[in-house]
Amino acid sequence: MADNRGKKFTIKSFRTHSPMDPTAARSVWSQLAGAVDEIHNRNASLLSFEELYRNAYNLVLHRHGSLLYDGVCEKITQHLTNVAEEVHSAEEGFLLQSLQIAWEHHRTTMMMVRDILMYMDRTYVVQSKRRPVYNLGLYLFQTVVWEYKDVKDRCVRSVLDMIAAERNATSVENLHQHDGLLKSVLGMLLELGYSTGMSGGNDQNMQPKSSVYERDFEAIFLATTQEYFRVESLECVSSSSVPAYVQKAEQRLKEEQFRSSRYLASTSCSPLLSIVETEFIDRHAKTLVDNPVSGVATMLRDDRLTDLKKMYELFQRVPPTVEFIRATLSSCVKQSGEGLINDYERGAADAGTFVRGVLTLREKYSTIVETSFSSEKKAQKKLKESLERFLNVDSRAAHCLAIYVDESLRSGLRGATEAEINDQLTKVITVFRYLQDKDVFEAFYKQYLAKRLLSNKSVSEDAEKNMVALLKAECGYQFTSKLEGMFNDMRISKDTREAFKAYKQTSLTRTKVDIEVDVLTTGYWPSQTVAPCLLPAAVSDAQSDFLKYYLKTHTGRKLQWQTSTGNADIRGNFQPDKGSLRRHELCVSTYQMCILVLFNDQDTLSLKDIREATNIPEEELQRHLISLCTPKHRILKKASRGKGISGDNDTFTYNNNYSSKLKRVKIPLVSMKDCMSGKNPGGEANGGAKNAIPAPVEEDRRHLVEASIVRIMKARKSLHHNDLIAEVSRQLSVRFVPSPPFIKQRIESLIEREYLERDDRDRRLYKYMA
Q: Which regions in the chain score pLDDT beneath 70?
């Protein structure tokens, strides 16, 4: 290893800094100015960019940055002044091309100049808070070329003319031939908009930052666009059908969106589409919806779901306009529903037809909402409200639905598969959900269910139980507890009949007739206030035997006979004037049995005689008598003519010439209106009292409302009037919707009975009295 201990280190002083004088600086700038000219003249390949960068670096380093910056600004301005004159002198058809060429050349020039003056951008420009070199070039192009005389106006007009030509083009040939030119020119305006950016802050003497694109082009473009589409939409709405108009609007929206992607700024897309939506959709929405020839009502009527779907999707672009379509949907549903009600009221449709019409209506519009409205929640709500509105005008719908269920479970579903039965019952529950008076439906349904169970007329016990299960799932166990009790009674009654039959076989007593009794729990079944009729002696003896057996088997119970609901099988002997004796087994009601047995003693009886002998209520007596006098089943012959009975002196004679091909003959009952000729006008057949709330239901409602009020007040202790009304309505909505006046009546009743009291200081505040 060499020994360097003998060498000495010498520390030299810093070299003296010699600043560049102004003369030398101007000399260096002259070289740079010549280079800028060469770049403008497209001779950049002859230059040494390394040397030019070093010269610019030295100028800035020796504090001659102002000289350099101002010189560059002046040079660029001089060059652009010549460019502006060239652009201005170009013919109209070549103006944009001339501007495009000048812009592309200027951008290339400024990028080269920016590379040479990079050091100045990083130091002098930042410290002096002036525009960077490239931004300076943009700003100068804007002020010197773009704003030169009428260049700006002519260019904007040319761009708008090209766009208008595109919009008016009837063919796609050469449709996009100007896309490159337009994209270049509009891109230039966008880039010029950023020319005001400063380095290190904003100079008070400089103009504030703004977008040349938005100010000089976009505002004018959007205004002309709005006027163009305003005129076009007016022409189209007056001359085209709604589907054609919708197709035109969709086409325009797609075209403008495509235009935005081709050469407009991304910021222009939203306001541009908004203008098209305003002019084509918002401005004419109601006119289109209400069009009497091809509007929404016509689409709904003719099931033009595809056209409606396209219209809905178009209107969705302006959400408030969709409400017009929903309103028309609601109106059409209500009109169709009112038509069903009118048909029912004038007797053109029965209850079953009415309910089937409701089901068809609901299915049709549910499909429309699902298909054309894409299952929109608001449309579904509108449909639900519309159905509820016409179904809850009165209690008519609840009664009709109960009749429809009765018809279905009595005979309509006979032969149907289990899946078909479940599907039909599910449809019934669908309509049931729309009813507010669910307790009215329950009352009527209970009456019809009782008749089916007692007469054994149900198509299937499983179908009956499925219906009750669906009601239970919909409204809770309290709603169906009595219905389930009815089924339980029928099961127990079957066991009781079998036990009584065994008892008679072991008993020494024998009766002339066999009697089968259904024992029903009073609280479960529809209340009957009809007094028992006078039964024939043989039937009365059998009745006494059952009573003794039942009371012996079940202590502490009381039986009340309901003779208005039974039926009987009796044997009739008919000896015609000519021919042999004919025997038929007649299946009749209990009332009919009591009437027919009277003719064992006399061949002719008057209405008054029959009434006194049977004690049957007047209306039911006439109904059952007329049923025995019908042309098909004329067991008795009525003296008076016509359907009705003339009076107490009208007589009935046993018809010994009665004949039937059947050995066992069922005698059906005529409807009540047929036996009340002249007393009940046909126009009231499906209206009148049937639309009123049944008295038992009204009474139950009073008790339910009072119980709910007491239950709420017992828990809350005190509550304001409106809060109590709302809470009671909420609790009872599963059965019915009580009106505020009705709730107020029950509150007053409870106050009178000292369940509640009013606060001394606030009369609308109720307190619970323990």
A: 1-18, 170-175, 196-210, 508-511, 672-691, 770
Structure tokens at 254: 């797609």
Per-residue model confidence as pLDDT tens digits over 689-731: 446 788 888 888 899 999 999 999 999 889 999 999 999 999 8
The runs of H, that is alpha helices, within 602-693 are 607-614, 618-627, 672-675
Q: Quick one: angle between helices 133-140 and 65-89, nearest 10?
A: 30
Q: Please name which of 631, 618, 636 lies closest in space to residue 676, comparing C-alpha atoms.
A: 618
Residue 639 CB neighbours (<10 A): 14
Q: Could you tell me which of 590, 601, 625, 600 has the C-alpha nearest to residue 611? A: 625
**Spatial distance between the Cα atoms of 291 and 622, rounded to a whole number of angstroms:** 57
Cα dist. 429→350, 487, 670 in Å? 20, 20, 30
52/389 Cα distance (integer angstroms): 87
Burial call 356-390: b when 16+ CB within 10 Å, e when fewer = ebbbebbeebbebbeebbeebeebeebbbebbeeb
CA 479, CA 733: separation in Å to the nearest integer? 12
Q: Which pLDDT tens digit goes with each residue over 634-647?
A: 889 888 887 788 88
- Residue 674 buriedness (CB in 10 A; 0-12 / 13-18 / 19+): middle
Residue-by-residue DSSP string for 199-230: SSS--TTSPPP--HIIIIIIHHHHHHHHHHHH
- Alpha helices by DSSP H, listed for 507-583, are 537-553
8 Å CB contact between 565 and 451: yes
**767 DSSP β-pair partners:** 718, 757
For the beta carbon of residue 293, count every other beta carbon within 10 angstroms: 7
Q: How far apart are CA 88 and CA 118, in angstroms?
A: 33
The helix (H) or strand (E) run that includes residue 715 is helix 695-716
Q: At what angle do helices 242-262 and 305-315 cross, to 10 degrees?
A: 40
Average pLDDT, the chain: 87
Instruction: Give residue for tokens 């909505």.
Output: 733
Structure tokens at 129: 């808070």
Per the structure block, which two tokens stand in for 112?
A: 């080269």
Q: Cα angle vertex 643, ends 642, 645, to 5°?
A: 90
Q: Which residue has the tokens 């100007």?
A: 178
